[in-house]
Design brief:
Length: about 375
């Protein structure tokens, strides 16, 4: 099978070679073939630049009382609805338990940002188009600052992150190691980036920590552009797929979605957190399987920032979901209602507000830099 067929390439700007085929990057004609499709996204990098190590943008020394204040409201934590969990913890322990679950979630986000960094770097090795390659290099730079920022936030609040859950780790290893470009773009640029946008919007809207709120918004100013890369691929690829190729992409997306839906944040992934509080993760998982019905999932997915609603909308807007798999997703959301919402994604308005702030700061900083250079 040739690289082009394996990658399901339908547009020259996504033409790819094997990761170890560096000689292909030295072809003379390649340097005169640059797609302008990514230029606006690349140029906009200056508008949403921020430095996690510069207190002008974010100050990680801002305090928060983890002992007495929960980072998220109690109804954010589904296990807190179980009598077993509630009755096993004192009021003080409940706050600490909820904050440890947030620590686990933010650690997962940190690991996800590391995965996005490695994925972006891997695209630089395989994409032949200079514009696509420059975009991927830019995203790698931005994902690197997200790793720095989330590591700094977790260090400021807890000291160290928690290990990556098996579901997320295995999926990222599969995506990053995959030789097929469509798997990288659908898996990371669309699904995991979409998952991140939903998570960031949820935390931004509900966290009680002003520092965390600022961090989520700053990261969203970058992620909104990363999501556009996947959308460009979908717009230029999905309509040109034959039935067999579409089925391959559609099935891969459904595989990733189902894996995340049922395994991403279940108690078995968070066993170490439960054990800290003398809670049996297997019992919690068993009780949740009874309590969290498909009907309850449907009710939760009516919330615009619900991470899985965001994922379904991403796939639907990309044209990846057809009658073959529509019924699977329709178990959880009203597909017609989702389609009627249009292309606007959760977090777009939050990101725009953040970009306006960054433009102000960066304009002021450029002025200072110019004066310093003149001296």
């Amino acid at each position: 099978m040739t690289t082009a067929i394996r990658n399901i390439t339908k547009d020259a700007m996504y033409d790819a070679v094997a990761p170890d085929d560096f000689e292909a990057m030295l072809e003379v004609d390649r340097y005169n073939n640059r797609s302008p499709a990514f230029d606006k996204i690349i140029s906009a990098t200056h508008d949403h630049f921020w430095d996690p190590l510069d207190k002008t943008y974010i100050d990680f020394s801002e305090p928060f009382d983890l002992e007495n204040q929960a980072l998220m409201p109690e109804d954010f934590f589904i296990p807190m609805q179980l009598d077993y969990v509630r009755n096993s913890l004192s009021e003080k322990e409940r706050i600490r338990f909820m904050n440890e679950i947030v620590r686990w979630n933010l650690s997962a986000i940190l690991h996800g940002e590391q995965g996005a960094l490695n994925l972006s770097a891997s695209l630089c090795h395989v994409l032949k188009d200079q514009g696509a390659q420059e975009y991927a290099a830019n995203q790698a730079r931005e994902e690197a600052r997200h790793v720095t920022a989330f590591a700094a936030y977790i260090r400021a609040r807890w000291g160290t992150p928690l290990p990556c859950g098996e579901t997320l780790k295995n999926l990222m290893v599969e995506i990053i190691s995959a030789p097929e470009v469509y798997k990288k773009i659908v898996g990371m640029q669309m699904l995991i980036e979409g998952l991140a946008m939903g998570a960031f919007a949820t935390f931004f809207q509900h966290t009680t920590d002003p520092l965390g709120r600022k961090l989520f918004q700053l990261v969203m100013t970058d992620e909104a552009f990363h999501h556009k890369f996947g959308k460009l691929w979908a717009d230029r690829t999905i309509p040109k797929l034959n039935a067999e190729e579409h089925a391959v992409v559609e099935d891969w997306a459904a595989h990733c979605f189902q894996n995340l839906l049922f395994n991403l944040v279940n108690p078995l992934q968070q066993r170490a957190v439960y054990e800290q509080f003398g809670l049996d993760a297997d019992r919690v998982m068993e009780e949740l399987q009874t309590a969290v019905t498909d009907e309850k999932r449907r009710e939760e997915m009516k919330e615009s920032a619900n991470i899985f609603r965001v994922l379904i909308k991403t796939l639907l807007n990309a044209g990846i979901i057809t009658e073959r798999t529509r019924a699977f997703y329709a178990m959880y959301v009203d597909m017609d209602e989702l389609k009627a919402e249009g292309d606007t994604m959760v977090g777009d308005a939050i990101a725009e507000e953040g970009i306006a702030f960054l433009k102000t700061v960066n304009f002021r900083n450029r002025g200072v830099a110019t004066l310093m250079a003149a001296e």
